[in-house]
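Researcher: Sequence of Nicastrin follows. Predict its structure.
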Amino acid sequence: GTCLLITLLQGPGISCNSVENKIYVHLNYSIPCVRLLNATHQIGCQSSLSGDVGVLHVLESEANLDWVLQNGPNPPYMVILDSTLFTRSVMMKLKTGSSRVAGVVVVAPSSNPAEGFSPHTTCPNENSGVYSESYDPALAHCNVTKWNPLGNGLSYEEYDFPMFSLKDDNDTQAIKQCYYDHNHVVNGSSPRYPLCAMQLYSHMSAVTDTATCMRRNGINFSLNPETVCDPLGDFNVLINSLLNSCPLLSCLQLDSRSFFFDIAPGAESAASGFVTLLAAAHALRNATQDAQPNRTILYAFFQGETFDYIGSSRLVYDMDNKQFPLDLDNVHSVVEIGQVCIILLVLWVHTDPVSRRNSSVNEELIRNLNSSALNLSLSLQEPSFSQPLPPSSFQRFLRARPIPGVVIQNHNSSFTNKYYESMYDNAEYLNMSYPPNLTPEEQLEYVTDAAKALTEVATIVARALYTQAGGSDPIQLKNINVTQMLYGFLVKSNNSWFQQIVPSDFAIHLRDRPTNFYVGVTQQHSEPTLLVQYLLANLTGTTVNITQDNCQNQREDEDDKESKHIYSYMWVQGAAPPNSTERVAFCVRSTVRLSKALSPAFDLEEYTSKDYSTWTESRWKSIKGRIFLVASHELEMLTLGVGVAVLIASLMLTYIISSKADILFSSGREPTAATY
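Model: Prediction complete. Tokens:
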């Protein structure tokens, strides 16, 4: 049975060249659910230290759960379910019956579910925004508007078993076939051994909450102390120099998440906003080259906003504590770009009903936005009733100061995004479809409907920012940059345009898949952070004719002592001329900087803070899965018994032989020679 299983799953031409390969078939593309912790609890999934083993069971309907939770004769079960059954109802039943559940594998579909799916909560970042018992409590806790009505909260539950996501590919179909060949119940009769089983490894080192795991990090009982968790965080991307005394701040969220660790496409929740602002920044760079407006514009791309506003709360903290060139009191106003994928050719301008009461700047912002939409197909409207700001980075600024500002979104009240913070918030959701038979290079240049819509949004944003900053010239954007950015972030980052604008040491990290917008931990720069940094530098900076050595040492020439305080320099690959494979590299000078996006709670060591994010991610040693055929318990006991009997017989035989060795192995003595 085992050899047939290996042949089925591994295909022809692959020989069983080891004992392990004859027994196990390893899962190739598996994405785990991992454990996260905050000030009060832990969420996510984990396996036991040695991995969890269960008999495979393909769940065909919710009614079929009785076999797993009550009737099945061979628990625990490793449940395989399609995405249509990945619902709160099913998962809560599996969670409460976890003694009979060894793990869950969700098969990701090839297309998005029409009914929508969001594993986030109905009230994102509920306790970390501005609305609270001390700031208009009637607006707190989404009392007025449930922003994410489809949110089922699965991402914020704790599960005592491992959970993985698998692609719906040939390997997954072969696993299901293994189930139907060995485990499938026919006419109510129990399946016969051997049974198809699966083992999942995803043991997490951290437990309980952030305070506990950070305390364990500080225990040094050995020469190599073990770290069990790391703070979530990354770097914010800013243009933060050449600021005058009262700049305009334009900001947005750069990260996203989903239930599973390495799948966070964030097409609408993140990419639609930052692609819009990148395009607007490029247009404003061209408009302001000859004459700077009266007020400069600070661009801020915040990381970690999904987890209680990590990036924005850090910038506010730094501004408030004189650790940033700009003081918080000097921020003129804020324009935030949220989810702006256009559904009904309408953008909604949200303001805070509390701080707006005494602010004429808000009225000026709204007028500028409305005038910026002239001669475009889009219109801007304000909500017709008083409601709080939607989840947004601007709320963290309002917690510190009553700063004027607006948040631009594509929804009036509840989100129009049916896949908020899920694996389905992807290119398909933005209708990024391409005609058949296009080459990757042609797809990169093909202008989709999403690119056309976001170009208009970027035009409105650029015009409004320019007018608010004191400029007056009309601005019109082209589709091409938006098209290329959407393709690079949502289809594959390994494309010819991205290759040109990144340094050579980063080019090897570009992939033939969508970008993962999960924030990650503070030990490393994430792919979206670096891509946005390089894009913003190329779109807003200038090319300078200096050597690679001077460029990489952040100077114009050997005598330059000042530029590193104002500019950053980046040596990028450039394009290869026609009929050549050698790229022509060049240096880009810009005012783009990275600033730390780590929650102040970790600098202050306030791991139970209610003011700042306390999210951490558990460490792990091994993430893997494998399937194999398992014998019946009786056969296992018989095999064990025979093995023990052989061992005892061997020991007894060895003892007998050893005790009689002088007889069994003696040889006759030679007679000694007589001496006289």
